[in-house]
Design a protein that fits this description.
The structure holds two protein chains of two kinds. By secondary structure, chain A is α+β, with helices and mostly antiparallel strands. Chain A has eight helices and five strands, in the order H-H-H-E-E-H-E-H-E-E-H-H-H. Classes of the chains: A alpha+beta, B mainly alpha.
Chain lengths: 271, 599
């Protein structure tokens, strides 16, 4: 006996095996990201307003990334539809765009990450806080590392305003952008120093956890779709129906990855 | 079309059909659900024994705090170093063993045995399928499980030893212990969760897609229903723990504060963290898995017991439909009872009231299940063979475990009982003489199908009597200790709180309560000795057991309508199903059982 319904749908369920499998897998993924989104809500509700960073992410870049993923979601359907219409050439064309979009998304995301790793907040012993960049653009600097290096002062280029500032202050600062001057801060005056890394605050902790987990999904999807575009596409010549099903299943996963980002973008960038 | 499909798609499986597969392909990288089931079963039984041995050491320490452990004490010192200095168990080692006993028993022994082993072996056979829907995913599931197990096992030998924060790994404790045991635990859990996830997807897809012609939903054996619901619990409850595990790993390795509150002080010093996290969040996410997990542990056991009771009473199971609807209700309700583990966290009376209500409601379908099994015995001509003895013992044992859970589900009573030995006794009655007895029943019942030989009835009964008596000697006294106020997880077994240690103080533990520790210790030793006949029986019967025919128990379900042991692909021709799963002693039938595939 061979395993039935690997390609043809079972009459009473109307589905082939892999399609049932991928939908079940996506259900578990919903629970995985659902738990993280719930954690986001709980952490945010429990945080003091002035400790919840706001407006530090680059919205235009995030928007571009959203568009990139939506485009890839369209092309992945087009690729599948092309196979259904027996047009292998068009499939290759659309699937190439999908893979390129995935890589572009990851590229943009890593640029955003790097930007955060070189952006700092300083908590001073007198209770004031400021955000900005440290001279020389070091990554992942902490107070312990500064002290270990034996420095007494750091050169700091502050941002025009702190994220907890009132709307008026932010507005004025945007109207009259001053010069970016370097100030010197004595290490003895610093209580805490952190780049915008996961340890900075619960906001960045959940931001990096969610986006990194999503990024891993994008990477996984890109590998699978890349395989179906490249060496895996040989199956088209031997078993076109099964190959089309594979592209559909990979596409369902890809839509899910896209959908997660559609939730992530407003939650992390806009709200 | 079908021919082309399988030539391409199942190249590997096809080869196995025509050639005798090599050793590695047959025993290590097998994609056959039967071999994977046996792999799961043997690995899980080894972990079951290992987890039990950890507890034997702990029981010695509880009964005789600070005295060298006999027989193995010096071995522990040699292997683990200073934590077992002079063969004595240090509190750190006690905590490690306690955390790992829970973890190993739940995630590496019972779940793989109940779901991975029996589910894998029996489900495709019972629904008349040639294999699981995704054989290679099935293999990956087993390999992830082994990897997770290896990571957990290795963590005993790293500096500082294995995780010490209990199997529940509550934060901030789990993050404050300055060793890497917890990181190993979390990474091991990620593998185990992935393994369960792959298994669950496979099981559900198999049951939906690969049922033989005529095998309608209401003709499924109850065991398949139990596995189906278990699959959904694993599929949907485990991912939140995976998310929580990732977050706790971030707390441990990257200094985040998901579960660490503002102003957390560790060892008298303010921790260098951002704070702002929520320790309660961990507990919510953990128990969101943790409670469905309880049903993951018990439902497959229920399924096995149902099969064996129907078979050995030679009667249709009473209330098949109520069983099915009850198990579905349990599956749904188990997702909304989790916070009854958290009444003492100060989460608020309104939330407590909600979870008390749902907890009382979920006891209804559980009672229906048990009642159906009891009524099924009524008027039956019962065969008391070894599987049936274990299945029968399951009923009162699970009953005790379940009913003693009710006071824990009520916030007022839980104030007194929370975190005492009463809790330990309660859930061990559910899992140890409950689920593990069902597992033993399953081993004795399906062993002839797996190997073609019967296990020894005499030694099976010796195993049963010993296990039954000693299980109760071990767990019954804990109810009394708990009600007397003995707190669990104490490395000295509560000696510091005893009346003898605090003369004149009110509420100290009495000498008789402390004395029960010795009773439990020797009960546990007796339980260990009782397992020797079982272990020998499993191995010796493989060669020397009485040869079994294809259907030694005269059973109706499809797994007995195949050759013994079943070949690759299970059935020579796809079976067609004509009737329900338990048509025993039908009026007018020639024999007292009518197989499902008999027209």
């Amino acid at each position: 006996m061979e395993i039935p319904y690997t390609t043809k749908p079972r009459p009473d369920t109307g589905l082939y095996n892999a399609k049932v499998g991928i939908w079940l897998f996506l259900a578990s993924e919903v629970m995985l990201f659902g738990a993280l989104f719930s954690s986001y809500i709980l952490l945010r509700v429990g945080a003091f307003v002035e400790n919840w960073p706001h407006g530090l992410l680059n919205v235009p870049i995030g928007t571009v990334n959203t568009i990139v993923l939506i485009v890839s979601s369209i092309t992945v359907v087009m690729a599948w539809a092309s196979l259904k219409m027996k047009n292998f050439g068009k499939f290759k064309f659309y699937q190439a765009i999908t893979v390129l979009c995935a890589l572009m998304f990851l590229g943009i995301k890593s640029f955003e990450y790097r930007d955060k790793f070189t952006h700092y907040e300083v908590w001073k012993t007198d209770g004031t806080r400021m955000t900005g960049h440290i001279e020389g653009k070091p990554m992942f600097l902490t107070l312990a590392k500064v002290k270990a290096a034996g420095k007494e002062k750091i050169g700091f280029i502050p941002d025009p305003y702190h994220y907890s500032a009132s709307k008026e202050v932010k507005h004025t600062a945007k109207e009259h952008p001053g010069e970016h001057k370097t100030v010197e801060i004595a290490v003895s005056e610093i209580k805490r120093l952190s780049a915008f890394v996961p340890a900075h605050s619960t906001y960045f902790a959940i931001y990096f956890t969610l986006t990194a987990l999503h990024g891993l999904h994008v990477l996984g999807g890109a590998i699978v779709i890349g395989f179906l575009f490249g060496p895996g596409s040989k199956m088209w010549h031997s078993d076109p129906e099964r190959f089309t099903n594979r592209v559909e299943v990979a596409g369902l996963f890809w839509h899910f990855v896209d959908l997660v980002w559609i939730f992530l973008f407003p939650v992390l960038y806009l709200l | 079309m079908q021919a082309t499909t399988h030539n391409v798609a199942h190249g590997g499986a096809d080869e196995a059909h025509h050639h005798e597969p090599g050793f590695m392909q047959k025993y290590v990288f097998s994609t056959d659900h039967k071999m994977i089931g046996i792999q799961y079963g043997l690995t899980a039984l080894v972990f079951l024994l290992f987890g039990f041995c950890l507890m034997l050491c702990m029981r010695w320490q509880i009964a005789h705090p600070g005295q060298p452990i006999p027989l193995v004490g010096h071995l522990l010192e040699r292997v683990l170093g200073d934590v077992a200095k002079d063969g004595k168990m240090s509190p750190d080692l006690y905590n490690s063993f306690g955390a790992m006993h829970g973890t190993i028993m739940v995630f590496l022994a019972i779940v793989p045995l109940a779901f991975g082993a029996f589910g894998n072996y029996v489900v495709p056979l019972q629904i008349g399928a040639p294999d699981m829907a995704f054989p290679r995913v099935n293999m990956a599931s087993y390999q992830f499980y082994v990897l997770g197990g290896i990571i957990m096992f290795v963590s005993f030998f790293i500096p500082g030893g294995a995780a010490q924060a209990g199997w529940t790994s509550y934060s901030p404790l789990a993050t404050s212990i300055p060793t890497h045991g917890q990181a190993f635990w979390l990474i091991g859990m990620v593998f185990l969760i992935s393994s369960s996830l792959l298994g669950a997807v496979n099981f559900i897809a198999t049951i939906i897609q690969l049922r033989a012609p005529g095998m309608t939903w209401m003709r499924l054996p109850f065991f398949v229903w139990a596995q189906f619901v278990t699959g959904f619990l694993l599929l949907l409850a485990f991912p939140p723990l995976e998310a929580a595990g990732v977050m706790q790993l971030m707390d441990n390795l990257f200094g985040t504060s998901f579960f660490l509150p503002t102003g957390l002080a560790v060892g008298g010093r303010l921790a260098d963290i951002s704070g702002g996290g929520s320790p309660l969040l961990w507990q919510h996410l953990f128990w969101f898995l943790g409670h469905p997990e309880v049903y993951v542990l018990i439902l497959p056991g229920m399924g096995i017991v149902c099969e064996i009771i129907a078979n050995n009473t030679r009667k249709t199971i009473w209330g098949y439909k109520s069983l099915v609807y009850s198990v579905l209700a349990i599956g749904f309700l188990s997702f909304i009872v989790w916070a009854h583990h958290m009444y003492l966290t100060g989460m608020g009376t309104k939330i407590s009231a909600f979870f008390q209500t749902t907890t009382m409601i979920i006891s209804i379908p559980s009672v229906i299940l048990l009642t159906c099994f009891f009524i099924s015995l009524w008027g039956g001509s019962i065969r008391f063979n070894t599987p049936m003895l274990f299945a029968l013992a399951f009923l009162p044992m699970f009953g005790i475990g379940g009913l003693t859970g009710l006071p824990l589900g009520l916030a007022a009573a839980d104030l007194h009982l929370h975190d005492t030995y009463y809790v330990i006794a309660h859930f061990h009655y559910v899992v140890a003489p409950g689920t593990i007895f069902a597992m033993f029943a399953g081993v004795y019942y399906w062993y002839p199908k797996m190997t073609g030989r019967m296990m020894s009835e005499f030694w099976g009964k010796v195993h049963f009597v010993g296990s039954f008596i000693f299980m109760n000697i071990v767990f019954q006294p804990m109810f009394f200790q708990g009600m007397a106020g003995m707190i669990r997880r104490m490395a000295d077994g509560g000696a510091n709180y005893s009346a003898a240690h605090n003369p004149g103080a009110i509420g100290g533990l009495s000498a008789s309560m402390m004395g029960l520790h010795s009773v439990i210790l020797w009960g546990a030793v007796g339980l260990a000795v009782s397992q020797i006949p079982f272990i020998l029986n499993v191995f010796i019967s493989m060669k020397n057991g009485k040869p079994a025919n294809d259907n030694p128990w005269d059973a109706t379900t499809l797994e007995w309508q195949t050759p013994t042991p079943p070949p690759h692909g299970n059935f020579a021709h796809a079976p067609t199903v004509y009737r329900g799963p338990y048509e025993y002693s039908q009026p007018g039938a020639k024999k007292d059982f009518t197989p499902q595939n008999q027209a």
